[in-house]
Amino acid sequence: MHEMGITQGILAASFEAAEEAGATRITEIRVSVGELTEVMDFALQFAFESLTPGTMAEGAVLVVNHVPARSKCLECGNVFEHDRFDMLCPACGSFALESLSGRELQIDSIETDEPADVAPAVTTADGVRDGSATAEESD
């Protein structure tokens, strides 16, 4: 079950980002998982629920965005969705494909509770934080 190792990596990166932001607790982690990664959602959720007790992510929610496999045919230019077993262009039957999506495995955002004088924040995959104004600034 490689989902346990993947979840450990997700949590380690999330803890680091939350601590750098001064957060005291993680309430939600959003991830994108491509169909071609073969990551099983139920196993990822199980690993998350097993690894979070006693951590700053205890009680947090893991939200998984499933990304379908899409490819572009290099012969005819057709763009289409497919599963991991049926990778022929439906328009011309070619095997010559460029993968466009479906291999993603990334943290999209981390939602945290921060100290009382700071609004809850969301850190996105590109490091942008929303809701970082202090209580005095928002009055």
Describe the structure.
This protein has 139 residues and is of the alpha+beta class. The protein has a single domain (3-68, 102-134), classed as hypothetical protein PF0899 fold (2-Layer Sandwich). It is built from 3 helices and 8 strands; from the N terminus they run H-E-H-E-E-E-E-E-E-E-H. It has helices at residues 3-20, 41-51, 135-138, and strands at residues 25-34, 61-67, 69-73, 79-82, 97-101, 105-113, 121-124, 129-130. It has a 5-stranded mixed beta sheet, with helices on one face. Strands 4-3-5 form a 3-stranded antiparallel beta sheet, with no helix packed on it. The protein is elongated, with a radius of gyration of 19 Å. Mean pLDDT is 87; it is low at 132-139.
Distance between the termini: 49 Å
Which structural class fits the helix and strand makeup? alpha+beta
Sheet with the most strands, sense and barrel status: 5 strands, mixed
Q: Level of helix content? A: 10-25%
Question: Tell me, what's the shape?
Answer: elongated
Q: CATH architecture, please?
A: 2-Layer Sandwich
Name the average pLDDT.
87
Structural key phrases:
hypothetical protein PF0899 fold, 33% strand, alpha+beta, 139 residues, five-stranded mixed beta sheet, 8 strands, single chain
Question: Strands, helices and their partners?
Answer:
Layout: H1 3-20, E1 25-34, H2 41-51, E2 61-67, E3 69-73, E4 79-82, E5 97-101, E6 105-113, E7 121-124, E8 129-130, H3 135-138
Parallel strand pairs: 1-2
Antiparallel strand pairs: 1-6, 3-4, 3-5, 6-7, 7-8
Helix pairs in contact: 1-2
